[in-house]
Q: What sequence folds into this?
């Protein structure tokens, strides 16, 4: 309905202004629904807490609506937010969230330019998210990942005073989140606002939702503020979302520490059946699991039952009278609760350029982005052999004296196929777009519009049969860790779709990944897969005999 004016009310899922004027613009709600919410006793305030059609479909049906949104729109929203005048006399803390699988993060080097000299940021804390998806390839692997993250920050121009700290977490399983909250409360306290920044699909909105349910948030906020919409579709958040940060007074920090100490003495057997059930679900999803608790719970008031005698005063021959129901008012913060509040903002994700996800459909994105613990798949290849990762990436072993090990770290739903150089082109031509290679899907018609694979030659020198020399990162589809005999020279040729980034990552993210494998499968180049056990944080381990 183009005649309806803009609402001035934001979608509680993505932050876009709710409207019913244009069904391909952000924040659209069907006109009938819009009017039913906005023409009640509270007027446009009736839209508060509502979500747009796009968020509804993402959350309930996993469907993504294409929006007419300029690529730079997300960046402009972030840039404008950061250039606001400092509140409380101090610039904000920037919580930069990156997908640890995406190192080197393509947006991180752009951060100094995005901030610019006129952004009064007090500091940057970099959070490496999705660490739960990666198996432990050796003792101390988390310390190594953290050092690699710090090195990536230094290479991107973030070092010294601007960089407050680097942390590893899983916003999905809760691993590392209690320590992140403690770090924020001990160092940043409640000095100013906090902005969550990062590329699309880095997990910012998942982290926002987890912090909303933690001790970092005012105790009443989870009852008032809706959770952000989370989906694998890039660019779900379209504008700013926020919650008020709790003031970490000495008393609150003491009570929080007492809760954490008490929980650390519990074993898994002491959890309730519901807690154990939830924990087992998280273990299936990730290798690293943590519980996020709340010290400052709001006391729930006992609901008052309205007794309406008129509703009961009818005989069997009469219809019940329709008593006018009281309008259920949505809870709001009082002025005193938020007049001096510091806020945590979730911002739109910055679109990654040269990313394979930008070429994929909604169904294909769901297959490519890993959502459960990645089980590495290792193959031993001789010169003249080829490895396909779906139809999104290919690695040819062109020259070398000895066999080498190729370990694939990618979504468990993506197929890996081994071929020979003489058959590889024919295999791709025959099966790209088909179920055999899975992604892309849609047959010949889909492949006509899909960019062709383009090659890049890579030369590596092995450092031993137990340690990978490099990762060949096939855009955001995953990577192949290459392990070769010491001093062995390899000539490889890797392919990704035209217009996407192929990166040779040295040192590799998981150098000992080839050790996570079972026995060789007879008559093939593959080894049986092996999934390491999950580690639960914040719980006392019990010795099992």
A:
């Amino acid at each position: 309905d183009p005649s309806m004016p803009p609402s001035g009310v934001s979608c509680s899922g993505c932050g876009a202004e709710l409207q019913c004027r244009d069904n391909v613009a952000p924040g659209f709600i069907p006109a009938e629904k819009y009017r039913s919410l906005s023409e009640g006793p509270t007027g446009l305030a009736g839209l508060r807490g509502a979500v747009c059609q796009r968020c509804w479909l993402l959350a309930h049906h996993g469907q993504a609506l294409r929006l007419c949104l300029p690529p730079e729109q997300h960046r402009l929203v972030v840039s404008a937010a950061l250039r606001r005048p400092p509140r409380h006399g101090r610039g904000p803390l920037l919580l930069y969230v990156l997908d640890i699988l995406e190192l080197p993060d393509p947006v991180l080097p752009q951060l100094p330019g995005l901030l610019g000299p006129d952004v009064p940021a007090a500091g940057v804390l970099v959070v490496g998210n999705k660490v739960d998806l990666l198996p432990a390839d050796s003792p101390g692997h988390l310390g190594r990942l953290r050092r690699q993250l710090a090195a990536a920050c230094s290479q991107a121009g973030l070092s010294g005073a601007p960089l407050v700290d680097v942390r590893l977490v899983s916003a999905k399983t809760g691993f590392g989140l209690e320590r992140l909250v403690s770090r924020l409360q001990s160092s940043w306290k409640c000095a100013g606002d906090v902005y969550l920044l990062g590329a699309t699909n880095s997990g910012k909105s998942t982290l926002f939702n987890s912090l909303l349910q933690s001790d970092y948030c005012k105790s009443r906020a989870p009852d008032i503020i809706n959770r952000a919409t989370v989906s694998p579709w890039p660019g779900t958040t379209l504008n700013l979302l926020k919650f008020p940060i709790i003031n970490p007074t000495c008393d609150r920090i003491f009570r929080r520490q007492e809760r954490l100490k008490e929980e650390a003495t519990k074993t898994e057997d002491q959890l309730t059946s519901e807690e154990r059930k939830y924990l087992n679900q998280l273990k299936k999803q990730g290798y690293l699991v943590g519980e996020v608790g709340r010290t400052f719970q709001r006391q729930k008031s006992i609901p008052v039952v309205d007794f309406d005698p008129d509703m009961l005063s009818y005989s069997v021959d009469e219809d019940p009278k329709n008593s006018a129901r009281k309008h259920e008012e949505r809870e709001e913060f009082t002025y005193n609760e938020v007049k001096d509040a510091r806020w945590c903002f979730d911002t739109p994700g910055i679109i990654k350029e040269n990313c394979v996800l930008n070429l994929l459909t909604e169904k294909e994105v769901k297959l490519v982005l890993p959502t459960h613990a990645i089980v590495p798949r290792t193959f031993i290849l001789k010169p003249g052999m080829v490895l396909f990762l779906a139809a999104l990436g290919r690695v040819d072993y062109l020259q070398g004296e000895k066999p080498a090990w190729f370990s694939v770290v990618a979504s468990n739903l993506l197929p890996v196929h081994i071929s020979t150089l003489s058959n590889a082109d024919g295999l791709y031509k025959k099966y790209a777009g088909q179920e055999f290679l899975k992604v892309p899907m849609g047959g010949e018609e889909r492949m006509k519009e899909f960019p062709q694979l383009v090659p890049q030659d890579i030369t590596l020198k092995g450092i031993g049969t137990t340690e990978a020399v490099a990762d060949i990162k096939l855009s955001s589809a995953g990577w192949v860790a290459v392990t070769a005999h010491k001093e062995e020279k390899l000539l490889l040729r890797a392919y990704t779709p035209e217009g996407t980034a192929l990166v040779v990552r040295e040192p590799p993210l998981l150098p000992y990944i080839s050790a996570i494998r079972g026995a060789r499968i007879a008559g093939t180049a593959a080894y049986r897969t092996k999934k390491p056990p999950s580690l639960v944080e914040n719980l006392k381990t019990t010795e099992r005999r």
